Amino acid sequence: MKEVRGESKKGQVTVFVIIALLIIVFGVLIYIFYPGLNSTVTGIEENPKLYLQDCVEDVLSENVETISSQGGSMEPDSSFIYNGVPIEYLCYSSDPYAPCTPQRALLVIHIEEEIKTSTKDKVSSCFDQMAVDYRGKGYDVNLNKGDFDVTLAPNKIILTSATRFEITKDSVQKYESFDVILDNNLFELASLARTIIIWEKNEGTADPFYIMNWYPGRFDIKKVSPDGGKTAIWTIEDLNTEDTFRFASSETEWPLGIEG
After folding, report:
1. Cα 28 to Cα 108: distance, rounded to the nearest angstrom
2. How far, in Å, CA of 85 to CA of 66, rounded?
């Protein structure tokens, strides 16, 4: 009886060994005969577009976060220091009894340019490093750098480069353009900031609770006055994405007996 059980265990081990060998052979065959899958397995070296996305994304995200927290600029021209951070005035008046004047007529376009300017060195260095890395892998590389643009779109920030990149090893691969995409809703946040600025200009002050009622459950809008009512610091948060945008605005001080 013991011998029968022993033979049964040996048979089970043999079956497991055969199955393991079949799995290994099957994996090797897939690796050899399906080069597309091979590229995925070996990582980003076979995908220049993914290489650029990975190389640029962190710096792009950091710059967007800084710009969003400072009123749309990396180095604000006219700002209020709040918790140690310079926050740009998007509506400003030196006369406390006069409505503020909007400072950025084309806020979204300005932000796009700020992101582009702050990211251009990283984009250029990533292309240079990509060429070096591919040559190190045995590729012939032809790199022709082009300009790039940044576009704010709903829920996306898109960096589009006209750079041409050609690599040759067993075959020629040509890339005429590159996109780096960041999930961020800065477009809608900046657009809503623009609406608040117009209200501040026309009425002297705006009510965050009234504005939130336009978008129930969509945005959280906070307004604080750290200098006794002369300046309003606005913070807009997208409740779906947790992206935020912050800016400063001059508040109108109405004379006694006059209400805004």
Report:
1. 52
2. 10
Give the pair of three-digit tokens for residue 125.
């260095």
- Note the Cα 185 to chain centre separation in Å: 9
Angle at 248 between CA 223 and CA 255, to 5 degrees: 75
pLDDT tens, position by position, 63-84: 999 999 999 999 998 999 999 9
Burial class (CB in 10 A: 0-12, 13-18, 19+), 87: buried
Contacts of 212 (CB under 8 A, 6+ apart): 219, 220, 221
One-letter amino acid for residue 96 of the chain: P
> Which tens digit of pLDDT belongs to each residue from 46-61?
699 999 999 999 999 9
Residue with tokens 């900031």: 193
Distance CA 260, CA 97 (A): 11
